[in-house]
Amino acid sequence: MGKAAEYELYYWPGIQGRGEFVRLALEEAGASYIDVVRESPAHGGGTKALMALLGDDTLPAIPFAPPVLKHGDRVIAQTANILLYLGPLLELTPPDEAGRFAVNQHQLTLADLVAEAHDVHHPICVSLYYEDQKPEARRRAAQFLSQRMPKFLGYFERVLSKNRTPGGAYLQKGMLTYADLSLAQVLFGLEYAFPRAFAAFSPKIPLSLGLRDAIAARPRIRAYLDSPRRIPFNEDGIFRHYPELDA
Amino acid sequence: MGKAAEYELYYWPGIQGRGEFVRLALEEAGASYIDVVRESPAHGGGTKALMALLGDDTLPAIPFAPPVLKHGDRVIAQTANILLYLGPLLELTPPDEAGRFAVNQHQLTLADLVAEAHDVHHPICVSLYYEDQKPEARRRAAQFLSQRMPKFLGYFERVLSKNRTPGGAYLQKGMLTYADLSLAQVLFGLEYAFPRAFAAFSPKIPLSLGLRDAIAARPRIRAYLDSPRRIPFNEDGIFRHYPELDA
Q1: Contact residues on chain A for B173, CB-CB shorter than 8 A
Q2: Which one of B96, B97, B101 makes the best mutation probe of the A interface by having the most chain A beta carbons within 10 Å?
Q3: Which of B75, B106, B108 is the best substitution to test chain A (most A C-beta atoms within 10 A)?
Q4: Which of A62, A119, A126 lies at the smallest CB-CB distance from B159?
Q5: pLDDT less than 50: residues of chain A
Q6: Which residue of A lies nearest to B110 if distances are taken between CA atoms?
Q7: In whole angstroms, what is the distance from residue A13 CA to residue A101 CA?
Q8: Which residue in the set B76, B101, B155 is minimally distant from A85, CB to CB?
Q9: Is A78 on the interface with B (CB under 8 A)?
Q10: What is the value of pTM for the model shown?
Q11: Which chain B residues contact residue A162 at CB under 8 A?
């Protein structure tokens, strides 16, 4: 594992998961980082590296779960917390304190939506397989798609609508922040998981889709999405396409 | 509504809910605050005041949901975000940046546990009644009590165990923070909701229970818990005692 990288990200291999919100911020900023667990075990990578970190009782704040970011002597867990830390370093959050709290607020609301989207396929417990909770998942999916997804996405559309400027509509008026990157990722994920329901709802969120498309067209994000670093969506992650759950 | 109070908290009336994590920090610090929605509508309170706030499109960061804190010209939503803001003002977080990120990390992990504890009685959707999702709730409760509660509480016990000093064991070594107050509240809530399962698990978390009891004995917290300001646990909040869900 090259020790020259400035940031080290630790996350489960094989899925985008919550690690993806961190990756998108690092990629947009062109930061030097290593996705540690995806490196070979011979070079300090692999799941073993993640397990060693999670089991390290000498850390000032032991992580409960990945993602975990290492930066110098800092070791930080919890997605929104990592982004709060990275925001100023990557210039993806406002320089003023009030703006940083606003962006953190949006990120936490997105985190709530992500947790609810995940639990559509795991309404009973994460430690059971989807196959062991399919009837419950079907009930939850109907509620999520008719109630919760519209409520959350309608809210973010309202925020964007209030923040329109000639330069575009962002969650934080006047600048692209890590919360916008996360919103774009949530929209990618919901469209992947629920293509029919998402298409039906899409006419109601033109600003959100415009933001998502503008982010996907940014040179570094576009290069990332087209690279092997971007793990494809799959049925092990947060956003899973099970046709029986789509409206 | 007296305008002399320094802080204004907006939260749903009648339940502790997520507002309680903010209340406990304000109470421990002896802060001057108003629980706005619990004031009379004639004095600017009531649910109408909350609805006006949630509908205010002129706010720099529109809240998705309560709790919301007003402090001077700041309007901040999302529980962990409010506490991140209040921490330094109430001296309930370390003065150094690394310490504040550590406390925020713990608070976010507690927020994850709170969301999972809530969804025990609402595994299908928050917009349906408990009575409409009882079989699913029963399945989820069994998983929560056998898998998730032990995992989370075992984790916090591990953190406390690593942080023991002659002055006590806290989530952030050497000082009481708002995350400790929140952990105590989660323990109160889990014991209320699942008295049998909690009693059975209790021998495994002596440091956590010691922290909880020490917090309950702090003069300002004790006075608060004994006052009418502390809303009793009930079956409308996050932590609900439905005997059929207890192991």
Answers
A1: 60
A2: B101
A3: B108
A4: A62
A5: 1-2
A6: A64
A7: 31
A8: B101
A9: yes
A10: 0.98
A11: 57, 62
CB contact under 8 A, B112 and A115: yes
Q: How many CB pairs under 8 A join A and B?
A: 125
H/E stretch holding B76: strand B74-77
Residue the block writes with tokens 């989660």: B186
The helix/strand/coil state of B71 is strand
Nearest CA in chain B to A147: B127
Q: What is the 3-state secondary structure (H, E, C) of chain A?
A: CCCCCCEEEECCCCCCCCHHHHHHHHHHCCCCEEEHHHCCHHHCCCHHHHHHHHCCCCCCCCCCCCCEEEECCEEEECHHHHHHHHHHHHCCCCCCHHHHHHHHHHHHHHHHHHHHHHHHHCCCCCCCCHHHCHHHHHHHHHHHHHHHHHHHHHHHHHHHHHCEECCEECCECCECCHHHHHHHHHHHHHHHHCHHHHHHHHHHCHHHHHHHHHHHCCHHHHHHHCCCCCCCCCCCCCCCCCHHHCC
Residues B67-117 have pLDDT tens digits of: 999 999 999 999 999 999 999 999 999 999 999 999 999 999 999 999 999
* Type of residue found at A206: P
Strand, helix or coil at B175?
A: strand
- Considering only residues 155 to 214 of chain A, which have any Cβ-Cβ distance to chain B shorter than 8 Å? 155, 158-159, 162, 172-173
